[in-house]
Backbone:
């Protein structure tokens, strides 16, 4: 598709993504859902300076097409999904570029079931943006839509999160890194309500500091904070709070793979893990799979992207899935990754098992992993090259059960990604470089 990727329409504000684009997205959605009744749409946004600009553009387009709009204001992506599916909205819109820098922004569209919008609807929006669909009728007189404040929806979501906790967090010292993003309005109030002694950093957004040296993509900040304050646990979110990366009591990182292990094992023990299976992506660490084998946990592997994880979960009725990056989906409670929900589920395991996070992850030996990107003339030619495949297969044979190699095409760039997991960093470097040398010798690299 031209504008919409796997996670919405994203790019630099007023360059790749403009107010005219947002207006047309609103115009089309208002008309599309308003053909047989007055459409109802809910909008949330993150803390980027440009989010207000896009909010007003979307509202103008939607109301001009006759839709009624409810504004959640600054809130998380999963809260928009929750409100959309529980309050009978035709669709929801989240204005956010997730973990990207502040000058980027994005429009994520959520369907009435709280899932990512179907590709066919996004294709129609693209056709309208490009003038391939005729001009849509404007609403007149009392048919023009109206806009109302809906912060009550955000508060209901906060109440929902609190209701999921099985016991009090009293006595637990918890650190939260809100990434100067969406979580700043929500995370602390949830943990405070549950009795935790909450320590919060990076929760003073100014429109330009979202994700800047903070949050789940700069985990070293929370690592240092947890150690300094001697906290029991820390949780870092990304800009729109659909990811969570944890820090244990020793200051060690607990990424999505480790979260899947501890939550999956606990859910299996309590009879809540359907078919005893977790859903991962092909980028999950070999150490996770070896630990799962020992714990009797089954697993599926999908393409990279939480969209593919969720598709697999829906198709097979699985309860838990996610990515190394911290997108974790608990299908009983949510239809998307939800960072704050994930942190509550980790707290439940710690409290019920009476174990620290460091102890819970001890059985997993994470293998060193090295990923290098190579810019190539043609991805398909490079991927199917005989000499390259010979080198990949030779490396896989030498690694055996103590490592693996994965070579795949980027979905968005002329890039081949070469990833190796092995017992040592030196072995990772050796096998990645071996394959890249062959790609170079075959004349497949740009420049």
Residues:
């Amino acid at each position: 598709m031209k504008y919409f990727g796997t996670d919405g329409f994203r790019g630099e504000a007023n360059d790749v993504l403009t107010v005219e684009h947002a207006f047309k997205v609103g115009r089309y959605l208002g008309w599309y859902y308003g053909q047989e009744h007055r459409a109802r749409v809910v909008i949330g946004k993150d803390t980027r300076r440009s989010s207000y600009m896009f909010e007003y553009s979307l509202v103008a387009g939607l109301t001009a097409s006759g839709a009624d709009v409810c504004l959640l204001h600054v809130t998380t992506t999963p809260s928009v999904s929750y409100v959309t599916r529980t309050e009978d909205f035709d669709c929801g819109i989240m204005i956010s570029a997730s973990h990207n820098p502040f000058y980027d922004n994005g429009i994520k569209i959520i369907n009435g079931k709280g899932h990512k919008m179907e590709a066919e609807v996004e294709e129609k929006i693209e056709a309208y943006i490009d003038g391939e669909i005729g001009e849509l009728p404007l609403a007149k007189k009392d048919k023009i839509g109206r806009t109302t404040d809906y912060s009550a929806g955000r508060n209901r979501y906060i109440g929902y999160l609190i209701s999921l906790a099985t016991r009090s967090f009293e006595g637990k010292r918890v650190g939260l890194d809100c990434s100067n993003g969406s979580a700043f309005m929500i995370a602390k109030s949830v943990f405070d309500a549950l009795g935790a002694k909450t320590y919060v950093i990076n929760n003073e957004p100014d429109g330009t500091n979202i994700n800047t040296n903070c949050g789940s993509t700069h985990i070293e900040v929370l690592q240092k904070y947890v150690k300094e304050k001697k906290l029991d646990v820390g949780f870092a979110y990304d800009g729109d709070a659909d990811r969570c990366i944890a820090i244990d009591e020793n200051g060690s990182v607990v990424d999505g793979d480790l979260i899947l292990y501890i939550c999956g094992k606990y859910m299996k023990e309590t009879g809540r893990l359907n078919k005893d299976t977790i859903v991962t992506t092909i980028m999950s660490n070999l150490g996770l799979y070896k630990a799962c084998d020992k714990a009797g946990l089954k697993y599926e592997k999908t393409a990279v992207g939480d969209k593919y994880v969720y598709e697999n979960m829906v198709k097979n009725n699985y309860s838990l899935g996610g990515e190394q990056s911290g997108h974790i989906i608990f299908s009983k409670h949510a239809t998307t990754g939800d960072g704050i929900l994930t942190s509550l589920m980790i707290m439940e395991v710690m409290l019920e098992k009476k174990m620290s996070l460091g102890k819970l992850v001890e059985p997993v030996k994470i293998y060193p992993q090295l990923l290098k990107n190579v810019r190539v003339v043609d991805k398909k030619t490079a991927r199917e090259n005989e000499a390259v495949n010979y080198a990949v297969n030779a490396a896989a044979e030498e690694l055996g059960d103590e490592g693996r190699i994965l070579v795949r095409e980027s979905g968005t760039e002329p890039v081949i990604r070469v990833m190796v997991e092995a017992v040592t960093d030196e072995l990772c470097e050796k096998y990645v470089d071996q394959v890249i040398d062959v790609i170079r010798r075959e004349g497949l690299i740009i420049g």
Summary: Residues 425-441 form the longest helix (17 residues). The radius of gyration is 23 Å.
